[in-house]
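Researcher: Please predict.
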Amino acid sequence: MGSTVLMLVLMGAAFYFLLIRPQQKRAKQQQEMTNALAPGARVMLASGVFGTIRHLGERQAIIEIAPGIEMTVLKQAIVKTVTSADDEFEYADDADGSEPDDTESSDFGNAAQNPFENIQPSDFNDPQPADHSETPAVTPNDDVPGENSQK
């Protein structure tokens, strides 16, 4: 009986030190990181999206993921703050204001600012049903299920 109780105590201690305590440390680090967030900080979200914090609330943050593109996320979705060494790419307006070297010429400059400006009501019409009058009718199969159909 004494060895059984000792074994249970050892298993409980191992469970605590291998599972519970490391999880508590990670939660504490995440809480400290969340409390230290400030506008302007570069962060990575749980989904892998990188962005810059623009505004912070009690539970939510507004993250700019590209110049002029913002999204609202829960603070818990912010996994870590990112250093400049972690960023692989840099936006042209974040650097020195010049255009990136590998841009190709495109007609995006001629496009309307609002992508929904050119939508017409006819774009939402249901497609016309296909005319199947020319297809031959399917002949009924007189085979009985479960029987050998080879003759």
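Model: Helices lie at 2-35.
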